[in-house]
Amino acid sequence: MTAVNGINSVTMYQQLQKLQGKVGQSTIYQSENGDLFNTNGYAVSASGETCTDGKDDGKIGFWSAIGNTLKGVGKTAVNMVKGCFTGKDGKFSLGKTLLTAATAAVCVAFPAVGLVACGIGAVSGAVQIGKGVYNAATADTDAEAKEAWQQVGGGALTTGLSISGAKASYNAVMKTSTANAMASLDKGASIFAKGKALATDMVSSTANRASAIKAAATNAFTNAKATYNEIKSVYNETDIAQARQMLKEARKSGNADDIAAAKQFLNEVKATNKAMAKEIVNEIKPVVKEAVKTKATNLFNTIKSNLNKEGLAKVASKLKGAPRAIANKIAEGKISLDQLVSQYGYDNVIEVLEILGATESI
């Protein structure tokens, strides 16, 4: 049985038993001051790390350092995933899951937000690496050294993922910005100038994305409201109320046949309303789809009519990737809206149309 010195708590006893399983068959003890050690006299950390080379001096060797760095990467990756969906108690949390989804959605909708978030993550990871290296250099026990290198691994993963995310967000900012500040900089521009230009592009990107999202949200609300009103107009509340009243009176009379008849009538009315509502929805769907297409067509034609070729080309030069190609195609005037949508997708095309439509000076 596990021996426990200086411990009267059953909870602590159970924790030590679990910890014993992490370090093999060696019995885990706790001293009067709370330090943990095994039967060999080696210190044991709260995570179960201890000396395995026969000399508990805080020096674990190159390969052990590499192994613990990789272990830190794995532990951090698992914790990252768990942290997206679980609360402090380690159990699934709907609130945390929704927060994770909402955060991701904001970063996708507004690349500038994602860029800032990734920048914070990169700095946090770099600080963690620095702390880990310092702790490894000043470790007094092998357990401390192992945990320090695991900290380095965790920091490296955080930094790597943040840098990767930052690159993706930066590219998205450049694609959705019409300020063209970064692209207009000279190669020898100072860090201050680059920072100022990046901030300008981030503001431009956010403004353009907000305009497109607002327009999409307005359309969605208008269409949803129209659908609701159409369904409500055919939903027969009078028959429902009448059927419920009949059922209420039948129950008062206690007549089983009357009750059954009233229930049947109520169910029939509900079924009829449901069928009518479904029919209306099926009728409205193509109408809504056509309305969206009509809006895109009108915007497309308005841009072609009101903006000259040179102006469109000028705006296109400020875009990158697919948005730039779409704007150039529109400027050429040799492609239809349907062809654009088929080639680049509706979302990309409507986003460029929104940007062009919001441009005031060309």
What does this structure look like?
With 362 residues, the protein is mainly α. Helix content is 74%, strand content 2%. It is built from twelve helices and two strands. It has helices at residues 10-22, 62-85, 94-109, 111-137, 142-176, 191-234, 237-253, 256-306, 309-317, 321-332, 337-344, 346-358, and strands at 28-30, 36-38. Strands 1-2 form a two-stranded antiparallel ribbon. It is flat. The N and C termini lie far apart (82 Å). The model is unreliable at 1-10 (pLDDT under 50).
The proportion of residues in beta strands is: under 5%
Radius of gyration: 33 Å
* SSE order: HEEHHHHHHHHHHH
Residue runs with pLDDT of under 50 for 5 or more positions: 1-10
Secondary structural class:
mainly alpha
Helix content: over 70%
Major beta-sheet overview: 2 strands, antiparallel
Q: Please count the helical segments.
A: 12
Mean of pLDDT? 76
Q: Could you tell me the number of beta strands?
A: 2
Read across the widest sheet, the strand sequence of neighbours is 1-2
Task: Name the features.
362 residues
Concise overview:
Helix content is 74%, strand content 2%. It is flat and about 85 Å long.
Secondary structure elements and pairings:
Elements (H helix, E strand, L loop, with lengths): L9 H13 L5 E3 L5 E3 L23 H24 L8 H16 L1 H27 L4 H35 L14 H44 L2 H17 L2 H51 L2 H9 L3 H12 L4 H8 L1 H13 L4
Antiparallel strand pairs: 1-2
Helix pairs in contact: 2-5, 3-4, 4-5, 5-6, 6-8, 6-12, 7-8, 8-12, 9-10, 10-12, 11-12
